[in-house]
């Protein structure tokens, strides 16, 4: 593992704006005489969590991550905060269960933050197999593989049909040359299975027309992204997790999500819009209580980082930030 301190490896994206968006949720908990409890669903190296713990001195953060290495590093880094940071190794679609395990019965969260995707730690650790720029076994499992239920990228590449591979590359990698790349990968694996990142990167490179390589970064970038999303079932898990996070919020609690991929952002947008619009059937003369929106959108559309942040932090370039506030807990009508 590299010697660089975790704090140097990762700059939290839109940090101050995330804190600003979370703050009214913390104030709502305080006004109710409660300690504000926030779930950082993607603890990573703890950049956002650290900022929150430092600025809001009564907040408790439940820091979730499926990657044990991230939890260990963040735990060490934030040890000064004692039990105000509780690390939980889990996939974030258990956000509501983790909240219930850590809150008194009937209480909700003051906030939930998601900062999606891989961390710089994961990209930097060559042996994890996320990066086309290092040669390593083709793994890409965010949970590090130990007692993992997910298959590795190498196993996935050996199993899927050419048509499935083409869809994965086109949809999750937004790869223009999905058809050509899928054909080349399938032809090559008939000969010898893929085992390393360099091997995969070289075959993708050869499949992409030379003229297309002049722009858009490394030709294998989108293929690696697509396989990482597939290996970790990132979009399915996210689609399940966001509504669960919304369920776990207290009245006045806030959801804040940073996404980096248009499909992630679409999932978040839809989940927010499902709760911020009336569910009353068209034509009903009055809106019944149970049809009223239970959230209000806090951001107008998606916010993006300013030019200075985009220039300073390449990871911020594609960031989209959305937030919503719970305005009314769903009450039983019986
Ligand atoms: C971009 S990093 C978060 C960085 C963090 N906000 C910081 O400032 O250090 C995303 C983290 O989320 C974790 N992660 C991604 N998908 C996850 C999932 N479905 N469940 C739990 N953790 C996940 C990754 O392992 C990674 O450590």
Overview of the structural elements:
There is one protein chain. With 334 residues, the chain is an alpha/beta fold. The longest helix has 17 residues, at 15-31. It folds into two domains: 6-121 and 234-326, Vaccinia Virus protein VP39 (Rossmann fold), CATH 3.40.50; 151-231, Putative methyltransferase TM0872, insert domain (DNA polymerase, domain 1, Orthogonal Bundle). It has helices at residues 6-9, 15-31, 47-55, 68-77, 95-102, 120-124, 153-159, 162-173, 178-191, 197-207, 221-231, 234-248, 262-276, 307-312, and strands spanning 37-40, 60-65, 85-89, 109-115, 249-259, 295-297, 320-326. The chain starts with 5 loop residues before the first helix and ends in an 8-residue tail after the last strand. It has 14 helices and seven strands. It has a seven-stranded mixed beta sheet, with helices on both faces. The model has no long low-confidence stretch (mean pLDDT 91). The site of S-adenosylmethionine has 21 residues, from helix 3 and strand 2.
Task: Name the features.
334 residues; alpha/beta; Rossmann fold; DNA polymerase, domain 1; seven-stranded mixed β-sheet; 7 strands; binds S-adenosylmethionine
């Amino acid at each position: 593992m590299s010697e660089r301190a975790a704090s140097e490896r990762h700059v939290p994206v839109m940090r101050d704006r995330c804190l600003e968006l979370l703050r009214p949720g913390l104030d709502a908990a305080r006004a109710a005489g409660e300690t504000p409890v926030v779930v950082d669903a993607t603890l990573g190296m703890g950049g956002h969590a650290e900022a929150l713990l430092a600025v809001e001195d009564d907040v408790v953060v439940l820091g979730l991550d499926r990657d044990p290495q991230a939890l260990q590093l963040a735990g060490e880094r934030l040890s000064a905060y004692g039990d105000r940071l509780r690390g939980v190794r889990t996939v974030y679609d258990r956000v509501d269960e983790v909240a219930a395990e850590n809150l008194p019965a009937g209480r909700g969260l003051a906030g939930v933050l998601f900062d999606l995707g891989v961390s710089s730690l994961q990209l930097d650790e060559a042996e994890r197999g996320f990066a086309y720029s290092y040669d390593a076994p083709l793994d890409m499992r965010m949970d590090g593989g130990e007692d993992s239920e997910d298959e590795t990228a190498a196993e996935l590449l050996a199993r899927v049909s050419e048509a499935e591979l083409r869809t994965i590359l086109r949809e999750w990698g937004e790869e223009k040359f999905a058809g050509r790349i899928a054909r080349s990968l399938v032809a090559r694996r008939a000969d010898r299975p893929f085992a390393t990142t360099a091997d995969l990167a070289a075959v993708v490179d050869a499949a992409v027309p030379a003229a297309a390589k002049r722009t858009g970064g490394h030709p294998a970038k989108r293929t690696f992204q697509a396989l990482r999303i597939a290996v970790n079932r990132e979009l399915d898990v996210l689609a399940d997790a966001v509504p669960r996070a919304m369920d776990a919020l207290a009245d006045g609690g806030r959801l804040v999500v940073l996404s980096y991929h248009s499909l992630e952002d679409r999932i978040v947008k839809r989940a927010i819009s499902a709760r911020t619009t009336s569910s009353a059937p068209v034509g009903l003369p009055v809106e019944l209580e149970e049809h009223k929106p239970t959230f209000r959108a806090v951001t107008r559309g998606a916010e993006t980082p300013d030019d200075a942040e985009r220039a300073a932090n390449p990871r911020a370039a594609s960031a989209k930030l959305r937030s919503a506030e719970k305005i009314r807990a769903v009450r039983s009508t019986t």
